[in-house]
Design brief:
The chain has 289 residues and is mostly helical. It is built from 15 helices and no strands.
Length: 289
């Protein structure tokens, strides 16, 4: 009890109302966030007849793996492979481009640098729906639809990763780079050997954001893929989502929850293992504007 009390003690060794309220709000938000996930996982192990009950049943009466068997009757391994290839390629390419662009905007002086950066930030305000139609027409005319290129190339230009890296590189002391330059190191070598290794936390933060965003991407893959072989996991799993409330659709809730569990687990695992570095990276980007 004493140990728990110390956790909510202020810096002066006294219990503060603000800190207690912060803990209460944080616990409440965590509780509200975890409930749908727990229900989803629980429902994935239920029999179809146990899903729609008058009261919420968090623990299945009868545990079954039939819902997962239904899901794996689809080409889920192919969809999983497509998602892994697409997400990994986008994440790696976006990090490389974002780090290079962020370093250039933070360290290199060229005409219109600040204007260019402001234009990048303003582009974040443009809804994806406004650019998705011309993008689709372009790939249609290039006859590049239903391909890895169509799935990978458009999301690579991620502005937010550029912002993260720029903010981090602005916070780095210039003395390290100046010393390397005096030793004859080129700008690219300084970036590769000094700046980029120091940006590990920012790199991981950007990787987590890019991975989770593109792993769950739905609208663009839905438009650009037509065959079962090129579907990503979210598109394939959407076939299990109940749409209407007739008996057939109600009975598909349990397989649908099994599909959503399979879809959500990779993102959750990535975040849980990298959350410490993720927070360090996010915090480091706010040191200097």
């Amino acid at each position: 009890m004493v140990a728990r009390l110390k956790l909510v003690m202020g810096a002066q060794g006294r219990l503060t109302v603000g800190r207690v309220l912060l803990w209460i709000i944080g616990l409440w938000l965590a509780y509200m966030w975890i409930l749908p996930f727990v229900w989803m996982v629980s429902t994935s192990f239920k029999l179809p007849g146990e899903v729609m009950t008058q009261t919420i049943e968090w623990i299945p009466r009868t545990w079954t793996l039939d819902n997962y068997r239904v899901v794996f009757q689809k080409p889920i391994v192919r969809w999983l492979w497509n998602s892994m290839v697409v997400t990994t390629a986008i994440t790696l390419a976006s990090i490389m481009l974002g780090a290079a662009a962020g370093y250039a905007l933070a360290r290199m002086n060229f005409p219109g640098r600040n204007v260019f950066f402001m234009m990048l930030l303003l582009s974040l305000m443009i809804p994806t729906e406004m650019t998705i139609v011309p993008r689709f027409i372009a790939f249609l005319r290039l006859r590049a639809t239903d391909s890895y290129a169509a799935l990978i190339l458009p999301p690579i230009a991620e502005v937010f990763s550029v912002y993260l890296f720029r903010q981090f590189f602005l916070s780095l002391p210039r003395e390290l780079e100046e010393a390397a330059a005096m030793d004859g190191a080129s700008r690219f070598r300084i970036f590769r050997v000094i700046a980029l290794p120091l940006a590990r936390a920012t790199t991981i933060a950007a990787a987590v954001l890019l991975f989770t965003t593109n792993w769950n991407a739905f609208l663009w893959p839905l438009l650009i893929t037509f065959s079962e072989e090129m579907k990503t996991l979210p598109i394939g799993m959407a076939a299990f989502a109940p749409v209407t409330m007739n008996r057939t659709q109600i009975e598909s809730y349990a397989p649908g929850m099994a599909a959503m569990t399979i879809l959500g687990v990779p993102s959750l695992i990535v975040f849980l293992f990298l959350q410490r570095y993720f927070m360090e990276g996010v915090i480091s980007t706010g040191i200097k504007g």
